[in-house]
Amino acid sequence: MWDAVVIGSGFGGAMAAHRLIAAGARVLMLERGDWVPRGEQAWLPGASLELTPAYAKDIPYRCEAGGHGKLIGGYACVGGPSVYYGCVAFRFRERDFTGDRDVVGASGAAWPYRYDELEPYYGEAERLLRIAGDDAGDPTAPRRAAPYPFPPAPLAHVSERVVDSAVDLGLSPFHLPLAIDHGRCIACRTCDTYACAIEAKNDVATTMIRPLVARGCQTSQRQRSGIEKRGQGGAEGGGPHRKAQTHLSSGATWGGIPPPRQLQRGASAGRTAGGQSGNEEPCRNRAMVRISDWHDG
Ligand SMILES: Cc1cc2nc3c(=O)[nH]c(=O)nc-3n(C[C@H](O)[C@H](O)[C@H](O)COP(=O)(O)OP(=O)(O)OC[C@H]3O[C@@H](n4cnc5c(N)ncnc54)[C@H](O)[C@@H]3O)c2cc1C
Ligand code: SF4
Q1: Residue 149 falls inside a structural domain
Q2: In angstroms, how far is the first alpha carbon of the chain from the final one?
Q3: Which domain holds residue 209?
Q4: Three-class SS of residue 206?
Q5: Which of 108, 137, 166, 294 keeps 20 to 30 A from 222, CA to CA?
Q6: Which residue, by CA, sits nearest to atom 8 of ligand 1?
Q7: What is the SS3 assignment for 270?
Q8: Residue 161 lies inside a defined structural domain of this protein
Q9: pLDDT digits 0-9 by tens, 181-208
Q10: Cα distance between residue 285 and residue 137, in whole Å
C-alpha cells in the first residue's frame, strides 16, 4: 500500500517525491523508461540522441517549423532528460513571470506566481541539484537570498580568451550556473546529449533518485502509467493506481514544470486550492496533483 504514486522520474517527479519522502510518505515512483547504464559505453557515439535506447519517438513534441521532421522524440529513462541535459541551471528572471505578450498572445495564460514567491524554492532546488555558479557579473541576475551552493569551476584558457574579448567589446560575460560536480568532472568531450559516464553530472537520477531510493522510495521502471489526458477537465486514472486512497502526483509533464514550481506546489497546494479540503490543483498536463497532505510549509 502506497501513500503516493509519483508518475515520471524527471525533475518534477523527483521534487515531488523528495517532499513526500521527507514527510514520511510511502512513495512508489513509476517511470516508463529504465536506468541508463554508465561507464565507458556512455562515451560512445551511439550513446547520444536518437541512437540511445532511452530516446523515445512516441513522445508527442511537435515541430512547427524547421527541424528534421514534424515529430520530435524525447528521453524516457530514470531521471528523465536530465540524464542527457546540458547541466545549465538558470533561474527564470523576475520579468519572466509577468507575461510576455508575444508569447502569451490571446491565450490568457499567465504564471500564477511571481518570482519572489518561488525564490526560496529555487534556492532549495539549487541545493538539491548542487549547482555551481556565481552570478555576480550577470546584469540580468534575479534577486537571490543565498549564493549558489558551490563556486563555479575555473575557466579554461580558451574561455578566458573569450571573456577578455567580450569585456573589450563592452559585454558582461559571466559563468553559466552548472549542475556539475566539479570535484569529479574530468571535462570529457561529451556532456550535453550524453549521460555522464562517471556520474559527475548532477542529473536527477544520480543526485536525487538514488538518495530517494536509499530513503525508502520505491521505483518501478519500464512502467507506463495508465493516466490519460482527458480534455480540459482533469485526468482519468486507469490501472492499479486508480484507488482513491492513493494520491497521484504527475511529474510526467512532457517538458516544462521547473523544479521550484513543483517544490512550491508541494508546499502550498492547500493555499492555492482556496483552502478547501481535498485540494486538487490541475497540473499542466491536466493530471491531478494531490500532495497537500504532506505539506510542510
Ligand atoms: C539534450 C537535452 C539537453 C537539455 N539541456 C538543458 C539544460 O542545459 N538546462 C535546462 O534547464 N534544461 C535542459 N533541457 C530541458 C530539460 O531537460 C527539461 O526541461 C526537463 O527535463 C523537464 O522536466 P520535467 O520534470 O517537466 O519532465 P521530464 O524531465 O521530461 O520528466 C518526465 C518523466 O516522466 C516519464 N514519463 C512520461 N510519461 C510517463 C508515463 N505515462 N508513465 C510513466 N512515466 C512517464 C518520462 O520518461 C520522464 O522520465 C535539456 C533537454 C534535452 C533533451
Ligand atoms: S565528466 Fe564532466 S564534462 Fe564529462 S559528461 Fe561528466 S560532467 Fe559532463
Answers
A1: no
A2: 26
A3: 4-98+184-294
A4: helix
A5: 294
A6: 86
A7: helix
A8: no
A9: 999 999 998 999 999 999 999 999 999 9
A10: 37
- Cβ < 6 A, ligand 1 pocket: 7-13, 30-33, 75-76, 80-82, 84-88, 192-193, 223-225, 251-253, 255-257
Show the ligand 2 pocket: residues with CB < 6 angstroms.
180, 185-188, 190-191, 194, 196, 198, 200-201
pTM for the model: 0.81
Residue 147 lies in a domain: no
145 in a structural domain: no
73: three-class secondary structure by DSSP: strand
β pairing state of 228-230 and 218-220 = unpaired
Q: How many domains does the chain have?
A: 1
Select from 5, 6, 18, 32 the residue to mutate for testing ligand 1; criterion: most ligand atoms less than 8 Å from CB. Answer: 32
How many angstroms does the Cα of residue 81 sit away from the middle of ligand 1? 4
Question: Residue 196 C-alpha to ligand 2 middle, in angstroms?
Answer: 5
Query: Which tens digit of pLDDT belongs to each residue from 30-47?
Result: 999 999 999 999 999 899
* Beta carbons of 282 and 288 less than 8 angstroms apart: yes
For the chain, how many residues are written? 297
Q: State the ligand closest to the CA atom of 228.
A: 1
Shortest-distance Cα residue to atom 4 of ligand 2 = 188
pLDDT tens profile 114-156: 999 999 999 999 999 999 999 999 999 999 999 999 999 999 9
Cell of 228: 490519460
Query: Closest-lying ligand to the alpha carbon of 35?
Result: 1
For residue 60, the 8-state DSSP code is E
